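[Q] Does anyone have a clean structure-token version of this?
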Amino acid sequence: MEILFGLMIPFIGTTLGSACVFFMKNELKPLVQKAFLGFASGVMVAASVWSLLIPAMDMSEGMGKFAFVPAAVGFLLGIAFLLFMDKNVPHQHLGCEEHEGPQCTLKKNTMLVLAVTLHNIPEGLSAGAVFAGVTTGNQMVTLAGAFALSIGIAIQNFPEGAIISMPLRAGGATRGKAFLYGAASGAVEPVAGALTLLLAEHITPVLPYLLSFAAGAMLYVVVEELIPEASEGEHSNVATIAFAAGFVLMMILDVTLG
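[A] Here you go.
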């Protein structure tokens, strides 16, 4: 039951953020969006390093000087996976008029949700991978550390939920519809985490690769989308400060709870 709750925590963060549409009247100001994007980027980078890449290398210490291999290979595979998804799944980012991926007839709102859903796939995989490490008795992964990662993801998912629901509301969607769209974007996380957990017994030998795969996918999102969006226009220093705050917070969570 604890592990099931742990997998749901990131989704809860997205849902709570999406609920902001019921309490806030106007669209998020650009300055606030930049702060949210920067904060989310900092959390994801810190989580990728402390919760995923470092444990992956620690698990491979028996390989001696080649302990970096699983982390490096998994990391690059994660980058390649998100690159493939980015090119083959139609989606549209906030503030962009043109959609990415193959041509399609999907509505703009649907493609906005798909864009955030792509972000959430690696987060679900990472949560599932660390909890899989717990269930298989891997000494490099603790239950507290797994919860630290889930809490960190939930914290950065809160503004992400608001970033998707508030503009939808401003664009004419009802509050209820905007909330459902925002919450739906995070539904993939517990699903991806649960699938990873179900395969726990079979993935134990490749757990270091899976952890670093999730790290690569998360960092792809940060470098390809979050940071560029946060740096556009004026007041990009706000995003930088928020990045530092998110990074430090996630680092503290992982070290103190892990």
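[Q] Thanks! Anything notable?
[A] The chain has one domain: 2-257.
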